[in-house]
């Protein structure tokens, strides 16, 4: 593990500027004061295990905050965070809309859980009470170790070495959101590893092998198209960052679009697969990857031509009908927890009629809390971009180093929200709050 280019942590507060800056560090003394840092350092590892492990780790973190004292300082740090007002804004909008909403009997059981889902970002605020420090880099390495472990478990499952139990179930059996999350975590981790190579060259061979190992397991074994797409996009962001602003910055996306266009036409020239149900196909990893790619292209093409899609392509059906529901009340939405009821009424007899979410956070927000709610969410993501920019131009190298991880997380959330319920599902939401805590710790918008 490489060390930060900073003095001993007891003197680090005198090194990083706090006046008018965006990062502050305070010396911590005693085991109680350092306990939140230690627990937060290990939390990224819990993301690769069943969701109960993650929530148990978060609970321990909250307990450590209480034990560590210094409550006024913690509240002060949260108040100084640039994230505070946007987060409270989204919560306020959702609560006001909920208070104005009539609750029909059909959604009464889902209403309060639905309200709670819109408060996911509030879980980030306690994490923001922790000061910056060496624990951030340690937490990143713990995250890297978790991704390597996940890749190893996927490899072990490929050779039929994993039992189907509670701990390994998401690696053995495709379990929807949890399995997708594992792939997204591996994509983010691999991209973070690549970024880390720019400034830390010790053990270079092992670092490169770790990136290749995690990326290969993601693409060939994790069985999630969203995560694979995310990994390649994040690699493109890193490449553009490395190239800087030049003609190549414009040429590279154009080349990628040309390659994608050629790949699209080639895929359509091939006969459609007989089945898109991956769990029913006995084939190697590369064949599975090609199958999912072909199925995606053919399903999009069939839907655009008005032809019927199968179970693998029903998201297109979800998006179309949900868009029709949104058009009825675009500004304030139909109300919290109304999507499922409204969709099932419109989709009777269709293969997608049993869906519980539209698998798209943008459409879910527009349906339930309208353009006002979606705008509140986009303000949060825009703030994350702004903070990442401020970090990137900061005079301290350790602050600049955390800018790209924050940018990548924001891209991951915005892209993931196009295909999954990133904030609607606690499995995704809490995981992203934990990861956001790493680059955002100690960040503040004012003195």
Structure explained in plain terms:
66% of the residues lie in helices and 0% in strands. By secondary structure, the chain is mostly helical. The longest helix has 24 residues, at 135-158. The radius of gyration is 23 Å and the shape is globular. Mean pLDDT is 83; it is low at 1-28.
Which labels suit this protein?
mainly alpha, 66% helix, 447 residues, 0% strand, single chain
Helix content: 55-70%
Main beta sheet: strand number and arrangement?
none
Radius of gyration: 23 Å
Give the low-pLDDT segments: 1-28
Principal-axis shape equals: globular
SSE ordering? HHHHHHHHHHHHHHHHHHHH
Question: Count the strands?
Answer: 0
The chain-level structural class is mainly alpha
Describe the structure concisely for a colleague.
This protein has helices at about 30-45, 50-70, 70-80, 85-100, 110-115, 125, 135-160, 170, 175-195, 205-220, 225-245, 245-270, 285-305, 315-330, 340-345, 360-370, 370-390, 395-400, 405-420, 425-440. With about 450 residues, it is mainly alpha-helical.
Task: Please specify the SSE layout and strand pairing.
Layout: H1 31-46, H2 51-68, H3 71-80, H4 84-99, H5 108-117, H6 124-127, H7 135-158, H8 169-172, H9 177-197, H10 204-221, H11 225-243, H12 247-269, H13 285-304, H14 314-328, H15 339-346, H16 361-368, H17 370-392, H18 397-401, H19 403-419, H20 426-440
GO molecular function, one term: ligase activity
Transmembrane segments: 47-72, 84-103, 115-134, 141-159, 179-197, 204-221, 227-243, 362-382, 403-421, 427-443
Keywords: Ligase, Membrane, Transmembrane, Transmembrane helix
């Amino acid at each position: 593990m490489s060390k930060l280019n900073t003095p001993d942590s007891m003197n680090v507060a005198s090194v990083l500027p706090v006046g008018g800056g965006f990062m502050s560090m305070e010396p911590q003394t005693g085991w109680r004061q350092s306990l939140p840092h230690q627990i937060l350092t290990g939390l990224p590892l819990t993301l690769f295990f069943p969701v109960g492990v993650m929530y148990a780790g978060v609970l321990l973190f909250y307990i450590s905050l209480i034990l560590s004292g210094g409550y006024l300082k913690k509240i002060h740090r949260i108040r100084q965070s640039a994230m505070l007002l946007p987060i409270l804004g989204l919560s306020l909008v959702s609560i006001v809309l909920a208070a104005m909403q009539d609750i029909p009997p059909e959604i009464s059981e889902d209403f309060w859980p639905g309200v709670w889902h819109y408060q996911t970002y509030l879980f980030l605020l306690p994490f923001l009470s922790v000061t910056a420090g060496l624990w951030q880099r340690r937490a990143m390495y713990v995250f890297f170790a978790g991704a390597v472990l996940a890749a190893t478990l996927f490899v072990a499952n490929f050779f039929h070495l994993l039992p189907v139990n509670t701990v390994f179930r998401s690696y053995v059996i495709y379990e929807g959101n949890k399995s997708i999350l594992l792939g997204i975590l591996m994509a983010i981790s691999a991209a973070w590893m690549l970024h880390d190579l720019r400034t830390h060259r010790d053990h270079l061979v092992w670092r490169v092998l770790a990136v290749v190992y995690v990326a290969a397991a993601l693409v060939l074994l994790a069985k999630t198209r969203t995560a694979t797409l995310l990994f390649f996009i994040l690699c493109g962001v890193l490449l553009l960052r490395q190239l800087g602003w030049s003609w190549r910055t414009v040429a590279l996306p154009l080349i990628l679009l040309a390659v994608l266009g050629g790949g699209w036409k080639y895929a359509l020239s091939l006969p459609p697969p007989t089945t898109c149900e991956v769990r029913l196909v006995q084939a190697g990893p590369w064949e599975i990857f090609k199958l999912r790619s072909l199925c995606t292209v053919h399903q999009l093409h069939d839907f655009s031509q008005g032809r019927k899609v199968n179970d693998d392509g029903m998201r297109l059906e979800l998006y179309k009908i949900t868009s029709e529901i949104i058009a009825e009340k675009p500004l304030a939405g139909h109300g919290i927890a109304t999507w499922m009821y409204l969709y099932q009424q419109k989709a009777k007899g269709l293969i997608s009629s049993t869906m519980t979410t539209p698998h798209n956070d943008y459409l879910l927000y527009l349906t339930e809390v309208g353009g006002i709610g979606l705008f509140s969410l986009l303000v949060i993501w825009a703030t994350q971009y702004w903070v990442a920019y401020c970090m990137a131009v900061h005079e301290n190298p350790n602050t600049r180093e955390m800018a790209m991880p924050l940018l990548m997380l924001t891209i991951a959330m915005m892209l993931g929200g196009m295909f999954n319920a990133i904030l609607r599902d606690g499995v995704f939401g809490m995981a992203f709050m934990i990861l956001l805590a790493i680059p955002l710790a100690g960040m503040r918008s004012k003195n």
